[in-house]
# Entry
Amino acid sequence: MKAADPIPLAHISEDETRSQTLTDHLRGTAALAGQFASAFSAGAEGEFVGLLHDLGKDSPGFQHRLHGGPPVDHSTAGAQAALQQNDPCAAFAIAGHHSGIPDGGHRQDAPDEPTLFGRIKRQVPVAGGLPPITARPALPAWVAESKDNLTTAFFTRMLFSCLVDADFLDTETFMNGSPAPRGTGQSIPELLKKMKVKADRYLTGAASSPVGTQRNQVLQACLEQGRTGPRGIYTLTVPTGGGKTFASLAFALEHAAAHGLNRVIYVIPYTSIIDQTAQTFTDLLGEENVLAHFSTADYKMVEKDDLTPSQYRSLLASENWDAPVIVTTAVQFFESLYANRSSRCRKLHNLANSVLIFDEAQTLPCDYLRPCVSAIAQLVQHYGVTAVLCTATQPDLGGLFREFAPEQPLRELSPDPDLLYQVLRRVTLGDLGTVSYEALVGQLKEHEQVLCVVNRRKTAQTLFAALPQDGSYCLTTLLCAADRRRQLAEIRARLENGLPCRVVSTSLIEAGVDVDFPSAYREQAGLDSLLQTAGRCNRNGKRLAAESPVWLFRLEDCPAPRMIRANVDALAYVQQHFARLDTPEAILAYFRQLYANKASLDRHGILPAFQKGNSPGQFFPFAWAAEQFQLIESPTRTVYLPIGKGNALCEQLRRQGPTRTLLRRLGLYSVNCYEAQLKALLAAGALEELPGGELLLANSASNLYSDKTGLAVEIETGNGLFF
# Structure
């Protein structure tokens, strides 16, 4: 009598005492993927990719692999099965669920090519011991009937996200022996109640100034529109100091509650202010309800690699945005939308049925503006999203949104932006021309309280070193979030108490940082940056505009960084044609000048590559696009710091490996470093690399970090703008 074939397994626990059958893993992943994809009417397709994704594990080679055998390709079999049923979206998602969504490639690609066309030609053994897969379901009508490749490509990424998160969660549940951690925050209606307590306090209290009166009017308008307005695209145009942050959150919670949406995602320009914004929301809504996504960790699981248990845990710990309120950066948000790696794309499906607030929308980079707007349009049109473009200097994006979402009008939330600019004009702008370091330092010393914003971290450190140390501060991203938070608290206290307070900062202070200086200086940049700096001066309107100067200046022998030269040129144009720069008309002219060259708004041709379907010579070039779409073209890695409370957290990371909870807590004690800086630190023996790939500042190199100036990194690459 022939012995029964062994039941194929998907996983064996690290201690080798438990196993998970392949059937259980496929069904568990399918159920979760279907649940996730149902948010955009693709539940059946989600189940389909879940059932197919690990078909390759039903092979002698993979079963041997579970017991120490060589790595095998177990993703291609499922992709081949999907293509046999004429489902390329599923095929891309399945082929990439470990190593990343591949390029489609060419029909003539050989089997050893990493493209989808190459992989479907491979001979991959499958034992055939699993039940037959049912026929593929029908795609949502808006995908099946679309003639726009951008729509199909975006759907593929969202489907991929559902599969990856489902696969990770089912695997993590088995490995841990208990359900994988999921978001435990309160519901949107419960958060709305908390927000309304504060809103009512504002609205029922007597406004002490014209600024307060206008802030209340903006808040009231946002609350009403949140309750009654349809899903879609909104703008909130309010001068700096007009209460945009709270008003936009109020709109988002009202709107989410009214439409049954799942979460609010707040997208800010820079990593440097995540902690401030997140702390504001945490104080209001509770720590369990707010996730600040600090980490830039980008784990990649490659089938040919023999991953250690710690590396695998690092992969499972990657972020999936499972909280009701998310605070993240534009870099993290948009790069994830065009990424192909599993760790970066895992969270994307949680964008569906959410409110997206883009704080300081004018900071969207020109070189990638068309792909960014296209992605927002896809989310609004097909994934139940409402988007809010929130800024004091509203960019001229109406034409782009009409191109990508012609049926979606832009609705303004502010009751009267032109009047707001008149009422909230609180400073006088001036131009110092070109000055030396010495002359600038001399001017800063003449002020007891002053803010100076510069373009480079090195410049900030140089100026700071020349100032009296009592009451002087240097704010850059070389400081960890915990120290930035502490310094900003000290700065606010000194400003309120009339003590000396001279702050030199990179542009991190421009966006959303609530400080109020009597005067300010701004190194040459764009009009939007100049007005953002102006928003940190006389913020509460306690002084006359004539008594609150904001000076634009240029430093000798210090040209503008390449990344902002177009902004500098657009400002120069506006200066030639407008007597006042702080008017809606001047702002509109600035952005029209900045966006005049349409080709420059998609510098790498990412959208044409997908629209044509075969450019740059490849069908759906997912991997190529991920390489091209780099908002910060010098990639960074996170370095965790054993300082303060971070010391115990780093030790925990050493002992136990990463978890989502631990990495979230460690975000306060981390800085991001560029490749050249990392090489220098590694060469000096200043970094410790853990088995999972996480980087820690070595205990022996703790003297390299100062709570005043941050991590001592002397290297400047010179090709980018560092915040």
About this structure: Residues 188-416 form a domain with the Rossmann fold fold (CATH 3.40.50.300).
